[in-house]
């Protein structure tokens, strides 16, 4: 149940009645949806950039430094993750500016509502959903990478057409 406070203003000869949400009442469902969306959008960008840069950098590290130094694929992936994290530090401001350009205003909540568990859980859910979507979208560099094992199998099949 949402507690509401009634505010009555005189405007000319008409009384205008506003209902303001009480500070102690939990955020409405619409406010919670907006909080989730407000937190998800920038994290889609973060997840996308993080994964895309990590995959591209890890691949290049494996194909260059990895072959020269003989490091494992996992070590190359870890170094790609390092490059991605460092790039994320530099790109964070740009991602947030882009999200602000989309017109996402800070949710209009009372200070007590910001600290309520519903708001915190919804905010974290939005961030988690955003990161998950962004990371999945950020896997697009994998579409351009060929799998060496698949190529070897195809060559084997072409050389021996009767083998199944």
From TrEMBL:
<dbReference type="GO" id="GO:0003231">
    <property type="term" value="P:cardiac ventricle development"/>
</dbReference>
<keyword id="KW-1133">Transmembrane helix</keyword>
<keyword id="KW-0472">Membrane</keyword>
<dbReference type="GO" id="GO:0016020">
    <property type="term" value="C:membrane"/>
</dbReference>
<dbReference type="InterPro" id="IPR019537">
    <property type="entry name" value="TMEM65"/>
</dbReference>
<protein>
    <recommendedName>
        <fullName>Transmembrane protein 65</fullName>
    </recommendedName>
</protein>
<dbReference type="GO" id="GO:0005739">
    <property type="term" value="C:mitochondrion"/>
</dbReference>
<feature type="transmembrane region" description="Helical">
    <location>
        <begin position="125"/>
        <end position="145"/>
    </location>
</feature>
<dbReference type="Pfam" id="PF10507">
    <property type="entry name" value="TMEM65"/>
</dbReference>
<keyword id="KW-0812">Transmembrane</keyword>
<feature type="transmembrane region" description="Helical">
    <location>
        <begin position="32"/>
        <end position="49"/>
    </location>
</feature>
<dbReference type="GO" id="GO:1903779">
    <property type="term" value="P:regulation of cardiac conduction"/>
</dbReference>
């Amino acid at each position: 149940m949402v507690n509401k406070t009634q505010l009555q203003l005189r405007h000319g000869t008409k009384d205008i009645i506003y209902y303001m949400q009480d500070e102690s009442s939990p955020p409405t469902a619409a406010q919670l949806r907006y909080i989730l969306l407000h937190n998800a959008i920038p994290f889609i960008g973060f997840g996308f950039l993080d994964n895309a840069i990590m995959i591209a950098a890890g691949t290049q590290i494996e194909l260059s430094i990895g072959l020269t130094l003989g490091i494992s694929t996992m070590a190359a992936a870890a170094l790609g993750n390092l490059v991605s994290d460092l790039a994320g530090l530099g790109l964070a401001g740009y991602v947030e500016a882009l999200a602000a350009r989309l017109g996402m205003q800070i949710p209009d909540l009372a200070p007590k509502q910001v600290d309520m568990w519903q708001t915190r859980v919804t905010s974290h859910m939005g961030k988690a959903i955003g990161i998950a979507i962004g990371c999945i979208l950020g896997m697009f560099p994998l579409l351009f990478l060929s799998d060496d094992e698949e190529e070897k199998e195809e060559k084997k099949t072409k050389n021996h057409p009767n083998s199944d």
